[in-house]
User: What shape does this take?
Amino acid sequence: MPYERRKSRPVWVGNVQIGGDAPIVVQSMTTADTRDPKATLRQIHELADAGCEIVRVAVPDKVAAAALNDIVPHSPIPVVADIHFEHTLALRALEAGVHKLRLNPGNIRKPEDVREVVQKAKERHVPIRIGVNFGSLPPMTREFVDEMAAQGATQTELIAEHMVRTALGHIRILEDLDFGDIVVSLKAFEVPVMLEAYRRMAKIRDYPLHLGVTEAGTPKSGAIRSAVGIGTLLAEGIGDTIRVSLTTDPVEEVIVAYEILKSLGLRQRGATLVACPTCGRVEVDLFKLANEIDAYLKTIREPIKVAVMGCVVNGPGEARDSDVGVAAGRGKGVIFRKGKIVRRVEEDEIVAALKEEIQLVLAERANGQARDDSPQAERRMISIPVIEANSP
Assistant: This one.
């Protein structure tokens, strides 16, 4: 089935568009104490360098809100203020020039306080994200439970619908105040619940959806859980911006986010490593080789696909769509581009040779040259037919 993205209204966060025809936007959140502007800005710059396009900062008190005056003007990317319950913190954040609020208006006690925040956000063209998390839902009413039971709803459907209705309650407050610059998130740790909630919301409102699996976990398990949840929805055309939540340096969140997007062909940033799973034919330390190249590729920002294969017989054919790669054999390696072998090297020269070839590819792209049109490439090309992957 061809990819067809859900149509959502465009919302601008500073100079970054979410929704509409904009690419899927990558977000993250600082772990530094917002009350320390220097530490927070240092982390924001690290995130921006990794490809983060919008950053959220916690604003738990007046000191943190005041620190926004020293953060927002110096941030290289739009800043979102994460605020709960206290409307005065939202007002201070808006005065500091934040580009978006993460705020649930239903949690603010007085309607006049909500109106004040919304009016100021509207004047400054600052959108509001309604964020509903499974872990902070209000209790279900008996009437709601009975209604869903009568429909034969499963436990997953029950929770997902409760999340959607909770979000709609917050959304209607903003809609009643004629405010439409809204982004919605419906995060849960359980992937089936998260999937069901977003699917339901996608059918009834056209607001951009911020995807995420909340409290996903440590890097390995959290990345897998996020990839399954976020990736499934993106593959269905649902979602306009994503945040991968991991218990680690938030830069890792950005890296995983781009890997999810790259795997679906939705965004291209940095290098993609293709590596075979190894087998009894491998006669080099492929794990070491792949890890060395993987570490090197983290320094590259341009899109490029690099293959590290352990079999000279099938390697080039199996990775023929890679821009550049290596297939290793007994004490040797062959460097190839798009399935064509371009040079042979000794085993201890593989890493250096592959790095050199990667840089040549990037340089040729920068100069607008194709491999076949490069005199240097022509001299170095080796005319050896590639053995197909299925050959014996």
